[in-house]
Design a protein that fits this description.
single chain, 245 residues, alpha+beta, 3-stranded antiparallel beta sheet, 3-stranded mixed beta sheet, 38% helix, 15% strand
């Protein structure tokens, strides 16, 4: 029994990186039952974060490893919008307090143990015609195997614009978009064609023209889902936003 426990502990310490959360399901794959996990917690070999979620004691949680863990729990979960743009260097200024902007396919609530450590906002977003298991232009950040799924800059820009008039101030979105001069026109064109939000399509085209971004001239505007001939109108704390076709 002692040898078996020692083997399981050795595997746990070898395969579970410091700062990485682990679920009960993963522990079970190590041969560690729920009862044994409780024993490990009491012995100080594991720390309980919440029911069914643990980590190695004595190490602060890793942001990226924690995000990867949440990917397995929330369908379509990924880092997007303003956070993804910031990670890729598209920003107007560096915020003093980092807030993670997170997106997923379904309504969900971030675990308390996560939100307490990482200030975050989670939004259910179905901005494109796609499957949560095959999202367009979402990949592990910088293609690192241990990095969280993150929107590529073009998708993150559209996620940001989709929030204008709701949670995102227009002026800040415009200022961030001024830095978005290196966007790939072919990727934006693909995403805009699959976009479910007329407002987002129109706002992207409008700001790109106003800011005279070069990639705007390369978009296939005639084939984008621009809606009817009527203006899109929204009233928010920024005032009245009118977007013409």
């Amino acid at each position: 029994m002692a040898t078996t426990t020692s083997t399981k502990l050795k595997r746990l310490s070898t395969e579970l990186a410091p700062g990485s959360p682990v679920t009960a399901a993963t522990l079970a794959s190590f041969g560690i039952s729920a009862d044994l996990a409780v024993h490990y917690v009491r012995a100080g070999w594991l720390e309980r974060l919440a029911r069914g979620v643990y980590c190695r004691p004595g190490h602060p949680l890793s942001r990226d490893a924690t995000l990867v863990t949440l990917q397995s729990q929330i369908k379509g979960f990924h880092v997007g919008g303003k956070t993804a743009l910031d990670w890729y260097g598209v920003r107007h200024y560096v915020a003093g307090d980092e807030v993670l902007y997170l997106y997923g396919w379904d309504a969900a609530r971030l675990p308390e143990w996560f939100a307490r450590r990482f200030p975050s906002e989670y939004h259910r977003k179905r901005l494109f015609h796609e499957s949560p298991d095959d999202m367009f232009h979402v990949a592990s950040f910088e293609r690192r195997h241990d990095a969280p799924l993150t929107s590529e800059p073009e998708r993150a820009l559209l996620e940001l614009l989709s929030e204008v008039g709701v949670r995102q101030p227009l002026q800040e979105a415009r200022e961030i978009m001024e830095s978005a001069y290196n966007m790939r026109a072919d990727v934006l064109n693909e995403l805009l064609q699959r976009c479910t939000s007329v407002k987002t399509v129109r706002l992207c085209l409008h700001l790109a023209r106003v800011l005279q971004l070069v990639w705007a001239t390369k978009l296939d505007v005639a084939n984008l889902p621009n809606g009817s001939d009527r203006p899109w109108v929204s009233k928010s704390r920024d005032g009245l936003l009118v977007l013409k076709p």
